[in-house]
Amino acid sequence: MVNKTALIFDVQRFCLFDGDGIRTTVFFKGCPMRCAWCCNPESQSFSPELMIKPAGACAECQKCLAACPQGALSLREKGVSVDRAACILCGTCETLCPFDRIRTAGRAYTVDEVADIILKDRDYYDDSHGGVTLSGGEVTAQADFVLALTERLKREKIGVMIETCGFSAPDPFAEIAGMVDRVYFDVKLLDEAEHIRYTGRSNKQILENLRAAAGLTETVVRVPLIPGVNMTEAFAADLAAFLAPLPVAAVELLPYHRLGVGKYRELGRDYSLADTPLASREENLAFFETLKNQTDKPVRFR
Amino acid sequence: MMTERIRNLKDFICSFPPEVFADRAEIITDSYERTEGLPSVLRRAVAFRDILEKIDIHIGELERVVGALSGKARGCQVFPEYDMTFVINEMDGLADRNTDRFLISEDTKARLRAIYPYWQDKTIAHHASLRLSDEQKDAASSLVYILTAMRSGVGHLVIDYRSFLERGILGVLEEVKEKRTEENAAYYEAVEISLLAVCAYAERYAELAEKQAAAEENGARKAELCEIARILRKVPARPAETFAEAVQSFWLVHLALHLEASGHSMSPGRFDQYMYPYFKHDLERGVPLEELEETLHFLWLKFFELNKIRDKVSTIAFGGYPMFQNLIVGGIDEDGNPAENELSYLCLAATRQIALPQPSLSIRWNEEKSTKRFLLAALDTVRIGGGMPAMFNDKTLIANMRTMGYNEKEANDYTIVGCSETTGNGNVEPWLTGGFLNVAKVLELTLFDGYDPVAKRQFPFRTGDAAAMTWEAFYAAFKTQLAHYLMLNIKGDDVLDELHGSLCPTPFVSAFIRGCLDAGKTNLEGGAKYNSTTLQMVAVPNVIDSLRAMKKFVYDEKTVSFSELKDALLSNFEGREDLRSLLKNKSPKYGNDDDSVDLIGRDLVDFLYGEVEKYTSPRGGKYRLALYTIASNVLFAKYTGATPDGRKAFDNLADGGVSAGHGRDQLGATALLNSVVKLTPTKVLGSSLLNLRLTPNFLTDENKEKIADLVRTYFKHGGQHIQFNVFDEAVLRDAQIHPEKYPTLMVRVAGFSVLFTTIERALQDDIIRRTCQESGGKKW
Q1: What is the pTM of this model?
Q2: Would you state the torsion angle of the CA atoms of residues B525, B527, B532, B533, taken in this order, to the nearest 10 degrees?
Q3: Are residues B709 and A123, on separate chains, in Cβ contact within 8 Å?
Q4: Which CATH topology does A49-105 take?
Q5: Where are the domains of chain B?
Q6: Taking a C-beta distance cutoff of 8 angstroms, is the pair B354, B2 a contact?
Q7: Using one digit for the tens of pLDDT, what is the confidence trace for B46-104?
Q8: Which CATH superfamily groups domain A5-46+106-301?
């Protein structure tokens, strides 16, 4: 318990969009799903990863090349490139790069380390009825730590919410959901085959967990609106029908954006939705209206 | 609601640049020629009377509240008694300089040239130049500091408006008669002359209104002009009874303060408190709220119309025609009861609707006694983007007032002058212009052992070759340099303090400052009940960051040698972008809630507090520490070489006072605010000023509540002040390219707001480059 650590890639203070009041959001690294539109690709792997800004942003001083103990770095047309098989994530290049162009996404934190950062803003949570949001990656994938941290924060009387993709075994999921003030639960697709196609995983257990969450705590469903994937009348109708019997507090729609595309390059990965256009305001509104007309739940954009 | 007429009047006064006139300068020259040999205070009173008797006056056709500095709207006057040389040297360029443009006719120029010879050996600036040492002058020309009381009046006051409105000038005159002593007969005579001069000045306006009424064909306007005349025959001489009378009475006296001396930051102070009885009286007798609101709006436009001309260098540090007329609403009254009222809200609404940079609107926030509704209303005004109101924290400032020796009632009744300076209400000469000290320049002088690499000048005060020093020795050498230049600045300001008291005392103002009529001397000669002087420290955040980076790389890790750093700074990081980036990116920065750097700042504030408090001014008041910049950071930046925080030579120095360096605060607003409160706000007794930038679409209804809570917690932690820059970067960039499209685009500088297109490029860039606080902080 004391030595419990989690792989976390960011702890952001002064977050205003992940729940009530002023919050600190903890981003856990590692996710069982691989959603094609994921805007935080560094959140997916359960290992730390090197992220390198591409040519243009890099000053090409080559200090990192000379210093790398593994000789894993080279200067290519696209900037500094890393041989990820050879890299041992020792952090030498990151420390050395004066221009802040290299960083390691993800490191192990103890509960105390995360709590120390969180507690710096505790008066701000108190006055604004804010707190902490545990996000990811996938929080339930590091369930023991999440439970320990949540317990710790509860002792401090700090409110905790989570954001989850819902892909989890029922046990830790229900235990976590039962402890937190609110669950933001992602629903991407209802058709299982489609779900597997775009996320790599079945949604069977996910939907079970959604039912469980709704019975355990305040649950807000979040739906990323992805053009060509789920912005259909059929999906809106199915979603409304699925949610009808559940005590879900609200449905939040998240319009598709491409703000994470650069991070795929920094990780040396391709972005599979490169050809997907942004939805127009009218298209987003159309989906919103369609859903709103079929459900008694509050629907809003986020 | 803003009426059509107010909109038209606003459009009219914004439609042309202000103009300089020579009549005041001519009248005072003529007067001074006739009063040679009289005591200064009498000469000042006679000159003031002569000015008010003869200066051009006008009443604009849309106006209902009247009184202006010249015969034309937005006109301004020349004050040769402070400094005439800059006017003569710069007048040909006034119409097309980068900022603060003024029209000036050839006739005016000729008239000013004609009186110049008389003033050459009589001005404050002239006498100061004889008395300041070479070292003091060199330090000023290297921009180690600026002595601000060199070329203009002292200003920076809140007079006792409440007691004057209740008694009228004739009531004040009674007090003068009661308190008169033979010993200080000249002073009392001067006060009497000045007070009666203002009554006569009001008569002149009444006569003009009657004359216009006689010629007016429109019946409604005719009646209005008759009413204006009636009011001006009553006030400011006698007590005001209605809101319109109180506003007119207030304005004429406020205006007269600006004809006696050229100081700015003459602040209305707690307007919603002393005006409320008249407002309430009118509401109760059935005057429509719309009419009262329109009266208030007329006054708001009058505040905007007031103007003064500054020398070119000053327009960099104080660009955008600012007059710093701080008007503060809310808080508690002197007995500790909640003070916000309907008029407080109308003031917030007036600035929201009229959207011009004057008055400098502020609120007092009292965690126990203010309502959240009030704070949200204030944020509604913030949302329009003009940076007003600034927000002040009762908890810390009342405690600071007590520390400064004010009694409990006086502390509860504190007010704000100018940008953000904490002062007593109508009972103090706070001399908020002690000077601005460029702390980054002092660091530079320490690094180079007294040599200024920008001006290429060796100063006599040396602390040794820093290359051989340990961290402790270097930090001590820096403090030694700091103590020296702080002393030099203060001694320079003492010279000016004596000169203003002996050459340009202000008998009229002094009649409204408690203590002066008892002491028998003006506020500039130490007559006020309280006296103090503040000294402003600029670029402290850059220095904290620089010291932290030096400690890390040069002394702790030893990865950068001192000579390597020194060479890089001297060459402005030429070919050493890597070192510059290292200093900038890889060392902790103030503004991110990191004790390893913030506590250097706290230690520095402790040190400065101890040093500043050692000194007493010629008026017998203590010097006080302040951390605010106005825009002096932009001016200082042009004279300050590269610094060890990775800042390039002549690049921005930190704005505000306790704001972090541009772009250096990366972890969100809470982290910044936590850093700010580590700089011991209870020792920064003058003022500690924070700019916080947000985007307009960030301030949604939902987030507005969260920002209100953010302010509340920050104030619970002891923060003194916060003001918001709310703008869309793209809009400001576009306004730089197409200024003609944005004639009334208002932005916040530091303690004052301006029309964006009236300030110079460097200051525009300073504002644009401030860190924008976003949810979750800056992303990598």
Answers
A1: 0.96
A2: -20
A3: no
A4: Alpha-Beta Plaits (3.30.70)
A5: 4-123
A6: yes
A7: 999 999 999 999 999 999 999 999 999 999 999 999 999 999 999 999 999 888 999 99
A8: Aldolase class I (3.20.20.70)
